[in-house]
Write a structure and sequence with these properties.
By secondary structure, the chain is α+β, with helices and mostly antiparallel strands. It is built from ten helices and 16 strands.
């Protein structure tokens, strides 16, 4: 049966499968988030078990919870979901593309190439919406596009409080290619962070990371039952034994990986109260904001995109008498 026919089949009931086509406005959405929105009573554990067992399939193939969907793809869902009432589908809210919104987007522009566009995301601006978050880059892109086929697409994420390079795809084809490159870690990411204390000159952190349960929300911890995670770090400059500027290169892509790893080795990132409490706030002229910046992104063709640091990171480094590394700086192979 062709994909077009499957996508148009009506929802099944009883012991039959259900088929759901991915709508245009869900392009780039994580599979698990799409399902939880569609079926509010469906738990994350249920979703992951059915994915592991192959009961939920994407275009006929097994998928993972974090798989990014593309508009037009088809999900096959088992009877247990087919019998679950779907949530009503509200119209996707559209943000009015005011001149100030367009100016804010233009001010973030870094570079552009075939199939991609890079922004320097400021600290405090979310990449996607969530509970209580109405102003975000994904919404800005939707507002400025004429239709779903012409809009820019997200291919990776950085935390709301982290500044720096954010890569966007211009087409669906570019989005799929870049998403695959990120997932396979073929793009080299280098972050700058101001950390507490004086870490060793260089090192590799290999500690698994697990998401905390209960009311902890989006918070992670080092735990032997977690997913494997590896971070390279290199000390670039320091102010005595009080604080240091480090370069960080994540070799895996776990949630809050850099923040968790640096806090775990006793050198939390300045301003990261979530993982270090008051120990992350030195006081004085140093802002109580996260000092983590996605500084450079090296593409598969060797092109390097560099983002100037956030104003608060730049000001803190100046107050401490620290210098930024030269553009194009790169980790040496271990």
């Amino acid at each position: 049966m062709s994909k077009d026919i499957v996508a148009k089949r009506p929802a099944a009931t009883g012991n039959k499968w259900r088929f759901e086509a991915v709508p245009n406005h869900e392009d780039g959405t994580r599979l698990d988030r799409f399902l939880r929105r569609l079926f509010p009573g469906l738990g994350q554990g249920q979703i992951e078990r059915m994915l592991r067992n192959g009961l939920i399939r994407l275009d006929g193939a097994k998928a993972k919870a974090a798989t990014r969907l593309a508009s037009g793809q088809t999900l096959r869902l088992p009877p247990v979901i087919a019998e679950t009432p779907a949530a009503s589908k509200p119209a996707v809210p559209r943000i009015v593309a005011s001149s100030s919104l367009r100016q804010q987007f233009d001010d973030m522009f870094l570079a552009e190439g075939k199939g991609w566009l890079a922004l320097n995301k400021p600290s405090g601006l979310a990449v996607q919406g969530g509970s209580g978050t109405h102003h975000h880059i994904d919404g800005m892109m939707r507002a400025m596009s004429d239709d779903a086929g012409s809009r820019l697409r997200l291919v990776h994420r950085i935390d709301k409080d982290t500044s720096g390079v954010l890569l966007l795809a211009k087409t669906i084809e570019a989005a799929r290619s870049l998403t695959d490159a990120f997932q396979k870690h073929r793009l080299e990411k280098t972050y700058l962070a101001l950390v507490m204390g004086l870490p060793p000159e260089s090192g590799s952190i290999r500690d698994p990371i697990l998401k905390l349960g209960g009311k902890a929300g989006e918070k992670m911890q080092v735990h032997e039952d977690g997913q494997s995670a590896q971070t390279l770090y290199r000390r670039l400059d320091h102010a005595g034994r009080k604080m240091a500027l480090v370069a960080l290169r994540p070799l895996t892509g776990r949630t809050h990986q850099l923040r968790v790893h640096m806090a775990h080795i006793g050198h939390p990132i300045c301003g990261d109260g979530k993982y270090a409490g008051d120990d992350a706030h030195p006081g004085g002229l140093i802002a109580r904001r996260l000092h983590l910046h996605a500084w450079q992104l090296r593409l598969t063709d060797g092109k390097v995109i560099t983002a100037p640091p956030s104003p608060h990171l730049k000001a803190s480094l100046a107050d401490l008498g620290m210098d930024l590394p030269a553009a194009g700086w790169r980790f040496q192979d271990y």
